[in-house]
Amino acid sequence: MSELIEALTAVAEPRPPGAGRSTTSDLSIDEILLLHAAGWEPVALVFGVSCWSIPWGSLGTWQGQVGEVREATEAFRGAFEEASYQLRRETDRLGGFGVVGVEIELRMRAQHVDLALTGTAVRSLGANPAATNFQSDLSARDFVLLLRAGWVPLDLVAGASFVIAPRRSARQWAAQQGRNVELTNLTQALYHAREVAMEQMQAGARRLEAAGVVNVKLHEGPLGYSHRVVQFVALGTAVRLGEEGHQHIEPTMVVSLDEQVRLFEATSLRTPGTKRG
Q1: How confident is the model at residue 54, as a pLDDT?
Q2: Dihedral (Cα; 126, 132, 134, 136), 10-degree rounding
Q3: Number of domains in the chain
Q4: To the nearest whole number, what is the mean pLDDT of the chain?
Q5: Which comes out higher in pLDDT, residue 226 or 113?
Q6: Closest-CA residue to 149 (of 161, 160, 141)
Q7: Domain holding 36: CATH number?
Q8: Domain-located, residue 269
Q9: 8 A C-beta contact, residue 107 and residue 114
Q10: pLDDT, position 1
Q11: Given CA atoms 8, 13, 17, 19 in this order, what sign does their dihedral have?
Q12: CA 32, 33, 38, 39: dihedral to nearest 10 degrees?
């Protein structure tokens, strides 16, 4: 029992860079080497999970015009903020300066929202890095490129909207049978959800005083258990120009070493019957 407690204590205690502690990450080998070349290193995989309830009947029948299910939208916002907080707290506990490669896993149920954030905590090997206390869905490669260009990631920003499309009337249903026509109720619902979700994400970037949002990922379409409920979720990384301003990056040539060499005979390029000179 004492050995187990010592092991858990050793894992929980943050270690300074170069302390010899092993790391676990979902980064590829070239991403890890690129991080080290830029003066950063991976710390560990970090997670943030949160489940929020949706009031009973909120995703039920919606009569009349296209309408947003505010209870579901608020549940997503609460779950995202809590999962993000858990992710940041675990990063701080491990001595990380930020998180890269964050992936979102979202499951919408009839009565609750399940949201999980997973990424790799990283830290700088030097002192006073430009990027600190950040969360980003940028890959390690894009993160290094962003830093070299003089920009810094600030935080993850997200927006979501869930809209119920009204049912078609019996007359509309009968008139559309056997014809290729637009289902305007679903089209309007998707447009409405998109506008609300994008505005929420942009509002989050404005609160951070960011210059913009990059690497935006979109999740859209009907929910699995109800084709009339349309979801639109947007997630990206808010960025801002660093104190030193924009840095121009000189392009470098990269030659891949793992491409299969295709050999061919020069004679195969000749048309049949052509005589050699």
Answers
A1: 81
A2: -30
A3: 1
A4: 79
A5: 113
A6: 141
A7: 3.30.110.70
A8: no
A9: yes
A10: 44
A11: negative
A12: 70
Residue 131 near residue 150 (C-beta atoms within 8 A):
no
Residue 242 CA to residue 151 CA, distance in Å, equals 5
Higher pLDDT, 58 or 26: 26
Decide if 137 contacts 117 (C-beta within 8 A).
no
Kindly report, residue by residue over 2-19, the tens digit of the pLDDT: 444 444 454 455 555 445
Query: Which of 2-11, 132-141, 192-201, 251-260 has the least mean pLDDT?
Result: 2-11
Rounded Cα distance between 18 and 33, Å, is 15
Residue 265 covered by a domain: no
Q: What is the pLDDT of residue 5?
A: 47
Asked, for residue 262, whether it belongs to a domain, the answer is no
Predicted pLDDT of residue 163: 86
* Residues 6+ positions from 180 with CB-CB distance below 8 Å: none
Task: Look at the block and give the residue holding tokens 């559309």.
Answer: 176
91-138: pLDDT as tens digits: 999 999 999 999 999 888 777 889 999 999 999 987 778 778 899 999
Q: Taking the model in full, what pTM does it have?
A: 0.73
Element (H, E) at 240: strand 226-241
C-alpha span between 189 and 210 (Å, rounded) = 29
Is 79 within 8 Å of 51 (Cβ atoms)?
A: yes
The CA distance from 115 to 106, in Å, is: 5
Tell me which residue has tokens 């490129």.
145
List the domain range (segments joined by +) for residue 84.
Answer: 2-250
In-domain check, residue 42: yes
**Spatial contact of 133 and 170, defined as CB atoms under 8 Å apart:** no
Q: Which of 235, 268, 19, 218 is nearest to 125 (CA)?
A: 19
For 4, 113, 159, 198, the CA distances from 54, given in Å and listed in that order, are: 39, 7, 17, 22
Q: Which H or E element spans position 24?
A: none
User: Cβ(143)–Cβ(136) under 8 Å?
Assistant: yes
